[in-house]
Structures are given as C-alpha cells and as structure tokens.
Design a protein that fits this description.
Length: about 270
C-alpha cells in the first residue's frame, strides 16, 4: 500500500503560511477590521502566555482596533485643521537657552483654558518656537475630539476678504466663531488695513469668552494698536482678547540658529575623528 505525500520542495513553493488564515482574513475584511491582522499574532501569543479568557482576548483585540481608528481619525482631523504633524508636545525641544514659564506651559497642555473659553497669547522673537507650541496644543485638542483650525493671520484675513466679496462673510464668521480652538499665527506681522482691522474686531467679539483662541505674535499687544487703522475698534478688540488671557512669553535664540549650531558641532566632531 502506497501513500501519497507532498514533496518538501513543493510545500516550500507555497511560501510562508499566513498566521491569520485566509478564511479569517476574509471575515476581517468583510467587517472592515483588516487592521487587526497586524497585531493578531502577537495578541494570540500574549493570550496563550497570560491564559486570557475569550472575553478578555476579545476586549484586547477590540481595544487595539479602537486605538487604531482613533489615531487614524486624529491624523485626518489634524491635517484638515492645518496642523503641522511634526509639531507636537513630545517633539518640542526643551533647549536650556530658552526662557519661558514652564509651569504655565504644563498647565496649558491640560487644555483647561478651553473649558472657560479663555484665550492664550504666545509671544516671542522670530524662530523661538512659538508656532510649535501653539500647534502642539492644537494636536492635544484634536485628541480630545475638539474642533481646531490653524491659520496664518494674513491668509485668514484674505479668506475673510474673499467671503465679503462673494457675500458669504456672515457665514464664514459664524464658522470661525464655532471652532473650539482657533490658532492664529504671525498676528500683527504686517499692518492691518481698515477691512482687516474690522474683521479682527468682529472675530474677537464673536469668540470672546465663548471659544478659546491662541494668538501667536512676535509683537507685544501694546504694539498691535500701531499696526491697525482704526484705533478705537482695535483697542476694544485688544482689551477683550487680553483680558484674562494666558501670556506665554518665550525668550531665547532662534531654533534655526540652534539647529545650525548643533550641525556645526556635529561636523566638528566628525572632523576630529
């Protein structure tokens, strides 16, 4: 009596065995859970090692999927908000040459200021890292499922001007007023004309004590008045946004200069070897 066996070489041609299996892979695809395949082998090993019950194992798998979806959703919402993906709390360079209130910064990262609609002013010289800190707070807010919008001041005013021309200004202001955390970068970098000064006032009034706004500028609020065309309107807006706002002032060398110094030190070390 002869038995038929598959030659070893033939078995090797089939390639590596899928640890998940074709049938299970098909079920996961049907349920839109294909992401589970990435960690399933590790989770199976962990379940065997810790002798997890069926319910505990299922909870572990579903927790992985929830974390994956939350991460993917946060990335999409951050991109839509205009946030630089590289500027996060964990990527902030705590350089010793930088001087700022670290206790205040720690409190700001808790986002408690958003609960009362309090504003934040991040002020300092060019290149100190103001935009990084503001963006990092935006990412933190995204993870809390808050609506966020990051906009450079000149582009924001351009958008409002375009909305005025096509008679959608009221709708655009309402949309901006509804954002949980609005981040305005490079404010007062250039002088504001009459229309921009008016838009500045309207934006401040609509959001005052309702929603939080982060204003990023290399000028002190006392200098903003000279950058506007309507002193009375601008003063009213500035008084509102600075009243009760947190002031985070950063002092120190430009991060570009710090990076340049680090690069030079690296090159010198390489030449020394």
């Amino acid at each position: 009596m002869s038995t038929t066996t598959q030659p070893r070489a033939a078995r090797s041609r089939t390639g590596p065995i899928d640890p998940v299996g074709a049938d299970l892979s098909q079920v996961l695809r049907a349920l839109k859970l294909s992401g589970l395949k990435d960690t399933l082998p590790e989770r199976l090993a962990l379940a065997r090692q810790q002798q997890l019950g069926h319910a505990a194992f299922l909870q572990l798998l579903l927790s992985d999927e929830v974390a994956r979806r939350e991460s993917r959703s946060a990335s999409l919402r951050a991109a839509k908000a205009g946030l630089d993906p590289s500027m996060r709390i964990q990527t902030w360079d705590e350089h010793p040459d930088l001087t700022y209130d670290r206790t205040l910064w720690s409190d700001l990262t808790s986002l408690r200021f958003t609960e009362a609609g309090t504003g934040v002013l991040i002020l300092g010289p060019v290149g100190a890292g103001k935009t990084h800190l503001a963006t990092a707070l935006g990412h933190a807010a995204i993870r809390r499922r808050m609506s966020v919008l990051f906009a450079r001041a000149d582009k924001l005013f351009t958008r409002l001007r375009a909305a005025r021309l096509d008679h959608t200004l009221e709708a655009e202001v309402r949309r901006l007023a509804a954002v949980d955390l609005l981040i305005i970068d490079d404010f007062a970098l250039r002088a504001l004309d009459a229309t921009q000064t008016n838009d500045f006032y309207e934006l401040v009034v609509e959001r005052h004590r309702k929603k939080s706004t982060i204003w990023v500028s290399n000028r002190e609020p006392s200098e903003w008045l000279a950058m506007t065309t309507d002193t009375l309107l601008a003063q009213s807006a500035i008084d509102r946004l600075t009243s009760g706002a947190h002031h985070l002032i950063i002092e120190g060398p430009s991060h570009r200069q710090r990076q340049h110094v680090t690069l030079d030190e690296t090159r010198q070390a390489q030449h020394a070897h």
